[in-house]
Each structure stands twice: as C-alpha cells, then as structure tokens.
Amino acid sequence: MIRDVEVLVIGGGPxxxxxxxxxxxxxxxxxxxxxxxxxxxxxxxxxxxxxxSERQYAGDRGIFIGQMLVEEMTNHPNVEIxxxxxxxxxxxDGVVTALKDEQHxxxxxxxxxxxxxxxxxxxxxxxxxxxxxxxxxxxQTLMNVGGVKPADKVIMVGAGNxxxxxxxxxxxxxxxxxxxxxxxxxxxxxxxHASKLRRAGVPICTGWTVKExxxxxxLEGVVLCRLDxxxxxxxxxxxxxxCDTLCLAVGLTPLAELCWQAGCHMxxxxxxxxxxxxxxxxxxxxxxxIYAAGDVSGIEEASSAMVEGRLAGYAVAVSLGYDVERAQKxxxxxxxxxxxxxxxxxxxxxxxxxxxVAEKRGGASC
Amino acid sequence: xRLEQHPILQFDRGExxxxxxxxxxxxxxTHETIAAALHAAGIRELGHSQNLNRPRGxxxxxxxxxxxxxxxxxxxxxxxxxxxxxxxxxxxxxxxxGVVKE
Lengths: 366, 102
Ligand SMILES: Cc1cc2nc3c(=O)[nH]c(=O)nc-3n(C[C@H](O)[C@H](O)[C@H](O)COP(=O)(O)OP(=O)(O)OC[C@H]3O[C@@H](n4cnc5c(N)ncnc54)[C@H](O)[C@@H]3O)c2cc1C
Known about the structure:
The complex is a heterodimer of chains A (366) and B (102). With 366 residues, chain A is of the alpha/beta class.
C-alpha cells in the first residue's frame, strides 16, 4: 500500500522541524520521518547557548530549543512525526520508501523536503582505527544523551566550534582534557567558546596535528607534531602524549545520499564541505518538488539550518497554494535573515560556497 | 562509568536490566544504547576488521558509519550505537560479514 502525503519532511532535526512548522503553519499537511527514536536531530545533545537573533532563539540552549520545537510539532494538528523510521530511497516515480519496525513502508508525497543533516569527517594517520578514536559528535552523544563518561583523558583535534564546545562539555562531565590541537594557524570557532576553555586551563595548540596514534588493542596515546606554513610536519617536533580517547572534530560532510539517489544535480563545493544538491533561491533542488534544507545542502550551523528549514517550508506552502501572500512574505523574510546570519567574516566561507552553487545553477547569487 | 552529576543535564536512564556481551553479563538501562552501556562498563572493543583483524570501536554514535556492527539476538550487522538495551539481550562480536536470516 502506498500512502499519499502532502509534504514529506525527511529528518527531524532543526531544519526539518522548522520546515514542518512553516509548511503546517500555512495550512499544509506534513509528515516528518525521523530515523532516531526521538526527533530533534543534533540539538538533543547541544547544551551550549545559541547566538543569532531572537527569532533564532538566541540565548537558549540547543537542547531546549529542540524540545520546544518537538513539543510544538507533536501537538500541531497538521503534523505527524514518525520516529524510528529510516528513509531508504526516493524513486523516479516520486515514491519514497522507509523502514520502520522491520516493515517496508511506501509514501507518495506531493513535495519532499530533505533535511537529513551531516556525518562527521575522519582524518588519516597511522592507527586511526584504534578503539578510543571517536568523532567529537559521537563523544557528545555518548555523554549528553547516553549519560556516560566518555573518557578519562582526552585530546581534541580541531578548534572549530564543535571541537571547542565538546571540549568544554567534557570538562563539565569531569573528563581531563589535555589539549586541543588545531592544524590551522588560527582558532576557527567563536572566541567565547575558546576563552571558556582557556580560562579552565586547557591549551589550544594551533599549528599542531596528530602524526600517529598508538596502543595495544585500544588507544593509549598519540604522537603530536608541529606543522609548517605549508601544513607539512616539522621534523624533530614530535611529542608523545598519553590519552585514552582522541576526538576528531575535523568537520562534517552533508548526508546527501537521498539527493544523489533522487537524481538531483549534485556538485562538490569545498566551502560547503562536500557534495551538495544545487538548489535555487527557494531551496528547491534540480528535481521539481524536492527541496533540501540544513546541513544536507551545505555545512553551516543550527541557527541557519532552522532558517533554511523555514524558507523551504514556506516555499513549499506557496507552491501548494496555501496562504500564499503571507507565506511568500515569510520566504522573503527568511532569505533576509540568512543574509544577516551569513554577514561578517565568519560567513565568508559559506558566502563563497553559495556563490559557487548559484554559478552551477546558472543564476545570480541570492 | 555513568555520569551521576551534571551542571546542566539530568538523565532518565529507564529501568535497570542485564544483557550479555560475548556471554558475560553486563548491566544496562532500557533508555541506553548498547554501545553506551558497554562503554559505561569499560568495553570499547566491539569487533574486529574483516581482513586485517584489527580491533574496532564505535566512531559516529549516530548510526551513520557502521563501525559498531555486532550480532544481537542472532541478527548480524546491528548498529549498537542506535539500538536500545533490552533485558536478556544477547550481544556478541560478529564474525565476518554476517548472514541475513531467511
Ligand atoms: C554528532 C553531531 C554533533 C554536533 N554538535 C554540534 C554542536 O555541539 N554545536 C554546533 O554548533 N553544531 C553541532 N553540530 C552541527 C549540526 O549539524 C547543526 O548544528 C544542525 O544540527 C544541523 O541541522 P539539520 O537539521 O540540518 O541536521 P541534524 O540536526 O543532523 O538533523 C538531521 C536529522 O535527520 C535524520 N536523518 C538522517 N538521515 C535520515 C533518513 N535516511 N531517514 C530519516 N531520518 C534521517 C537524523 O537522524 C537527524 O535527526 C553537530 C553535528 C553532528 C553530526
């Protein structure tokens, strides 16, 4: 049996929830499919406070923003959330298949919003497969969702926001954070996050990297070394540091398999951290009726993922003819918010990536 | 080890149950994933690579990467990082690729 659906949102993270909120708020009927047993995406583990403006819930902790959105969507008469449901495929005829409780489900949506988020990147060095070498997000999940002390003594690789934030959260969980190593000459994340760590006495070593890991059956330590301006290891600078856990916070990459499979025009855009679907100013991909919002369309962060979700949700509402005048205004407001969020030096990379997307599409950058 | 005190979070772990890891009893809670319960018990080695037989632990903990595949109640290739603990569950290290049941 194939179930007809008006708007199908794949992924119940901040982008998917805000897409549902927008589309349903305009009058559309929305079904959210989420593979995890709880909706909220990565917000469920983010205990730090958010920036941005009031509309993006600045000042609140990610985890509470997630709870608020989930509660609102759970109680919304036009929204249904199916958890423990993994979307497997989007077919040529528009049918979407999913797995829930060992059942193979089929849906025929009028519109699809793909909001599947991202996966953590890996780093190559000898013995990088030893148990104890984890993604920083994985450690955050173990600790903040699982309630497990993830390590006794840890080294963090990467001083972007996730590396800094997760290091601080490990201190809060009683873990000994030896240092944060960062290959680049500068700290990539926000200064507030870096300052909190430094005040706690955790050194952030820029221009350093992991040369190799060692251990018998599990991680026992790593060899760190300095890098020159060309990011090449400087001979003779190696130091051996004991640790039971190494966290890799070396970036995320879009989880865009479903877009590939649906036949969306995909491009590798370095600034967006991987292959992304080429979208238009409404976040619609090259396949009519399939939209992409949040990390799946380029790695950014949760605030912009929420606004992108809202943009896609209202754009879908407009295309379905719901509350057109107001929804169109909301589309434009969301676009303006994104421009605002991406202004300033921190937004440079994403602006460059989006300009490339616009070029690939053959249109002007919005 | 489990976190008992946290400045921001409170953990609702659910009910305490016992499952087995390679035949040995391990304590876990019903709201925990198998990977979290094993980690809390100090077990980080979840399997071995198929060709070089190198030890394997988890990597992503959100069901993306397949580093944590184990056999659970006879079913192979279970992602233990996203599968909840149940009372009496049998969790064993997987040999090779595993065979899908008919
Ligand atoms: C592990 C991890 C930790 C992070 N921690 C931080 C942090 O501390 N601070 C920070 O600023 N940023 C962090 N980020 C960045 C984060 O990606 C963004 O802040 C934000 O969550 C992006 O929102 P999203 O809705 O696009 O994706 P997500 O929040 O990742 O939501 C995507 C949702 O889609 C679901 N999904 C994926 N595939 C399928 C499928 N096939 N079928 C059904 N559902 C599916 C996922 O389970 C998930 O719930 C983290 C990212 C990761 C991966």
